[in-house]
Structure formats: C-alpha cells, structure tokens
Amino acid sequence: MKQTPFYQKHVALGAKMAEFAGYNMPISYSGINDEHATVRRNAGVFDISHMGEFILKGEGALPLLQKLTTNDASKLTAGKAQYSCLTNNNGGIVDDLVIYCIEENKVYMVVVNASNIQKDWNWFTHHNTERAEMHNISDQTCLLAIQGPNATRILQPLTDLDIMNLKYYTFVKGTFAGVDNVLISATGYTGSGGVEIYFEDKEGAADLIWDKIFELGAPQGLKPIGLGARDTLRLEMGFCLYGNDIDDTTSPLEAGLGWITKFTKEFTARDILQDQKEEGVARKLVGFEMVEKAIPRHDYEIKDFSGMTIGKVTSGTQSPTLGKGIGLGYVSKVFSGIDSKIYVKVRDRLVQAKVVKFPFS
Fold first, then answer.
1. Domain 282-361 maps to which CATH number in 2.40.240.50, 2.40.30.110, 3.40.50.1100, 3.30.460.10?
2. Are 81 and 38 in contact (CB under 8 A)?
3. What's the pLDDT at 311?
C-alpha cells in the first residue's frame, strides 16, 4: 500500500488506518460522529493527498478539456474552478473531477479521484490529439482539506492571501505557512465551508504545514478528521462518490448532473446524452431518508410496496446530524418524485423510506 506524506502523523495520533484506493489512509481518530460534528460546528483537517492532479498546458489544453469533459471549460478564467466529468463512448462517467484555471486558455489543473488516477491519465493520453502538454503531478502533490465554518478564520494568520473572503469554486496562489507556491481553493466536499491546500511535497513542506496548522488550530478546537466522517458529511449534502453513486455505467443525467452537462459544445457521447435529455431517463439517482428505524447500506435492494425491485442503494449511513438512516440510490423514474414512498430491503424485511430533497440536513 502507498502512504501519503502524513502517514506518520496519523499513526502518532492513533488513527484507525485502512486501505483506500491503494493508500493506507486514516478512517477515524476520535470516532466518526465526533469528527462529523467537529466539521459541522467548528473545523477539521482531512489528509486527501491520495487524490490525483494533472497539469494541462499549451494551446491544446482547453480544446482537450472541451472535448473530454461535459461542462464548458471555456467559461473559466484565472482563479476559477469548475466541477465536471469525463464521459465514455456510451455516455457513462469515466470520472468526476474539478478543473482549476491557472492561466486562461493556457494552463489548467485537473483533480481526479484517487481510485481513477491511472484510468483517467490513460483516457486523457489516448484522446490527446490536440497535443496538449500533460504532466501527472499526483505523486508530488500534497492536499489537505480544512473544512468547517471556522476553518478560514483559523487559517488566515498563516497567509497574506485573503482566504476568508474566497468565493465558492475560486482559488488563490501564494505563500502559506512560509511555503511558496501553495494553491488554496474553496471547492470543498463537506458542505460546511473551508478550503483545500495544494502544495508540492519537498523540503519538509508537508510536516511544516501540518504542524503550523495544528499549532495554531488545536487550541481553537481544530481536529484531524478521517475518511469515515468525510463520507457521512458528503452524503448528508447529497454529493456523489465515484464507485458508489456514479461509475462507467451511469450517465450524468441519471445521476442528477445535468447542470454540468452543456450541450452548447461537442464532447464525448454528447449525442447519446442529448437523446437522454429529450426522451427522459428510465432511472434517477435520488436521496431518501428512512421512515422506520434502519440503516441503508450499499447494494441493498430498493422495492415498491408490492415487493418488486425498483432500484438499489448506492450509498447509505446513519446520519450523525439527523439521527436517522439516509441514503442515495437509483430508482425507476416513476418513484423519483419528492415524498415518493419506497422500501429498502434490510436483511429479510422491507423498511419504509421516502424520497427527499438535497441536502438532507
């Protein structure tokens, strides 16, 4: 298993470690519920250095992004970021990603899921007829997400950059905690505000930044947070997780990602998705909460009142905020309306649930 530069920090803090996307990652420290509440109410630090980062440069960079991603990257100006996805030839999702515009029309950073780094790199490489200059900087890049309503206030003394007024899906670059060339973005995955910090792992930068953050933040209640709470936090917001809620067999329109699918340009499988938009999809990804006491889990069957299978759970948990079971799942379109009654098969019984709006909390 691979390790991030913060591995020894996690072990020293007594983190429960486990394999995730080929990395030995912290799942929890003080417990998922406590860590979840810390991020919702104050601030917490996630090590997500396992994520992948690609740099695309040159005249071919934007045309390549336009061809392969569903959103309109031509709208990006320097300092702006954009959520998007790659589609395969059948209209399924190769990966969801975030594009950062470093220099308009010339330099972009693409951040991809850890489990898809090689797959995505191969996809970009195979389709790079535009001859964009490409660099896979995943192994050299550290990434910390400091999330929560007090995150930017805690971090502001570590930089002259104005991070407290950083708008959602924008970023700045400069010096942070004495380290140069740090990219700080407001593109979080928890719904609680905060920033992500990208920097190169060299000359002790990882230890320096981690130590400075906790030296300043620990007295203010800042805590390290594991991937367990990251999952419950994103699920309460209704954010998709690749490999669970979206994959090579799900289309952006089925997954509720029509808002990042722009038909004003050509991109991979555009015609297939255009047909889906015009004809409608047969299934949709919905959020649901349990009416009766039960915890939905990945791959549990979703049924109608007669016991007929209408879909399956893609993500599920006991919501720390709501104190009830919540989940995401694909269901037949007729059952996708808000307040639709559905039933989750938990062991040998059908437990009632209802479709609700995002976010859950």
1. 2.40.30.110
2. no
3. 98
Superfamily of domain 7-49+139-236: Probable tRNA modification gtpase trme; domain 1 (3.30.1360.120)
pTM greater than 0.85 (yes/no): yes
DSSP letters, 39-67, are HHHS-EEEE-TTSEEEEEESTTHHHHHHH
Pick the closest to residue 220 from 164, 176, 154, 158 (CA basis).
Answer: 154
**3-state helix/strand/coil string of 265-302:** CCCCCHHHHHHHHHHCCCEEEEEEEECCCCCCCCCCEE
Decide if pLDDT at 75 tops 80. Answer: yes
Q: What is the 3-state secondary structure (H, E, C) of 180-193?
A: EEEEEECCCCCCCC
Domain edges within the chain? 7-49+139-236, 282-361
Q: What does pLDDT average to over the chain?
A: 98
Per-residue confidence (pLDDT) for residue 334, from 0 to 100:
97
CA distances from 110 to 42, 55, 194, 246, 302 (A): 29, 6, 20, 19, 35
Strands 133-136 and 52-57, by their bridges, are antiparallel
- What are the distances in angstroms from CA 37 to CA 34, 40, 172, 225, 294? 5, 5, 28, 10, 21
* Phi, psi dihedral angles at 72 (to 5 degrees): -95, 95
Q: How confident is the model at residue 284 (pLDDT cuts 50, 70, 90)?
A: very high
Paired sense of beta strands 52-57 and 81-87, if any:
unpaired
Cα distance between residue 123 and residue 128, in whole Å:
9
| Over residues 298-309, mean pLDDT | 97
Whether 355 and 336 have beta carbons less than 8 Å apart is answered as: yes
Statement: residue 56 has pLDDT above 90: yes
Q: pLDDT tens digits for 253-275?
A: 999 999 999 999 999 999 999 99
What pLDDT does 309 receive? 98
> Which pair of tokens denotes residue 94?
């190769």
Q: What is the pLDDT of residue 361?
A: 72
